[in-house]
């Protein structure tokens, strides 16, 4: 399994609101392969279809949130396959950003390239402290960020840091990533899930319907532009 899910109670009432925890673990670097993308979309489906779920927590294996897209595809030279994988990744990040329940990232370590893009798609980002790398390294490895990623970065990253984060491929540690805009909160590794559940519990008093309507209005221009960007990319394949 590339992604496992489990629910956690957010109050003392066992029949009360839940958080759905989706854990990525491919045994390696949690690359966004087609299997990983399908499993993550399934986890979002599960969260959105259960009225008791009031938040989704996305996390990874120890030391690694995600190191990016599947290199077996990215380095194979098949441009159509590359374009389609990156577009599928864009669809996933867009789903995270437009999810009808709040999505909290519990980043377990390295979050590079598509891993950092997933962080940008989550509402609240909690990360472990430590010697981990966070950011968009595409330009440093001869790749170009897709336009949908630029569209989202304009909304989520600090204006003071966005050029260095994108054009200069600057990677930082998790603590510095707070100022850049990839991360909101830093905790010790043994406190990560407790902190993520704490953030999820803060969502319980919110009216679920009002939250969805508000986020639909608040993020609609960005979501619409991302959809157009992704469609334009697919057309080139």
What does this structure look like?
The protein is α/β, with parallel strands linked by helices and 237 residues long. The chain has one domain: 2-enoyl-CoA Hydratase, Chain A, domain 1, CATH 3.90.226.10. The protein is 46% helix and 19% strand. It has 9 helices and 9 strands. The protein has helices at residues 34-49, 71-74, 79-97, 114-121, 147-156, 162-166, 174-180, 192-201, 208-236, and strands at residues 3-9, 18-24, 53-59, 63-66, 103-107, 109-112, 124-128, 134-135, 185-187. The protein has a 6-stranded mixed beta sheet, with helices on both faces. It has a 3-stranded parallel beta sheet with strand order 4-6-8. β2 (18-24), α1 (34-49) and β3 (53-59) form a beta-alpha-beta unit. α3 (79-97) runs parallel beside α4 and α3 (79-97) runs antiparallel to α9. The radius of gyration is 17 Å and the shape is globular. The chain starts with a strand and ends with a helix. The relative contact order is 0.15.
Output the radius of gyration: 17 Å
Order of helices and strands: EEHEEHHEEHEEHHHEHH
The domain tally reads 1
Shape: globular
Number of helices: 9
Please mark out the parts with pLDDT under 50 across 5 or more consecutive residues, or reply none.
none
Order of adjacent strands in the largest pleated sheet: 1-2-3-5-7-9
Number of DSSP strand runs: 9
> Mean of residue pLDDT?
96
At the fold tier of CATH, the topology name is: 2-enoyl-CoA Hydratase, Chain A, domain 1
CATH architecture tag: Alpha-Beta Complex
CATH class: Alpha Beta
Q: Look at the helices and sheets and give the structural class.
A: alpha/beta
């Amino acid at each position: 399994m590339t992604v496992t899910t489990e629910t956690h109670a957010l109050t003392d009432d066992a029949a009360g609101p839940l958080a759905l925890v989706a854990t990525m673990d491919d045994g390696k670097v949690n690359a966004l392969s087609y299997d990983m993308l399908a499993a993550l979309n399934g986890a979002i489906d599960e969260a959105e279809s259960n009225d008791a779920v009031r938040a989704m927590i996305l996390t990874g294996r120890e030391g690694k949130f995600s190191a990016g897209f599947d290199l077996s595809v990215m380095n194979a030279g098949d441009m159509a396959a590359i374009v389609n994988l990156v577009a599928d990744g864009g669809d996933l990040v867009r789903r995270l950003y437009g999810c009808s329940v709040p999505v909290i990232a519990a980043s377990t370590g390295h979050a590079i390239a598509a891993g950092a893009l997933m962080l940008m798609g989550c509402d609240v980002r909690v990360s472990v402290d430590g010697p981990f790398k966070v950011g968009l390294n595409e330009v440093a490895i001869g790749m170009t960020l897709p336009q949908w990623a630029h569209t989202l970065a304009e909304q989520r990253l600090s204006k003071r840091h966005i050029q260095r984060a994108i054009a200069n491929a600057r990677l930082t540690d998790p603590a510095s990533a707070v100022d850049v805009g990839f991360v909101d909160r830093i905790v010790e590794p043994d406190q990560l899930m407790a902190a993520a559940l704490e953030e999820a519990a803060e969502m319980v008093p919110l009216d679920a319907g009002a939250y969805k309507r508000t986020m639909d209005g608040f993020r609609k221009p960005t979501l619409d532009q991302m959809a157009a960007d992704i469609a334009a990319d697919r057309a080139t394949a």
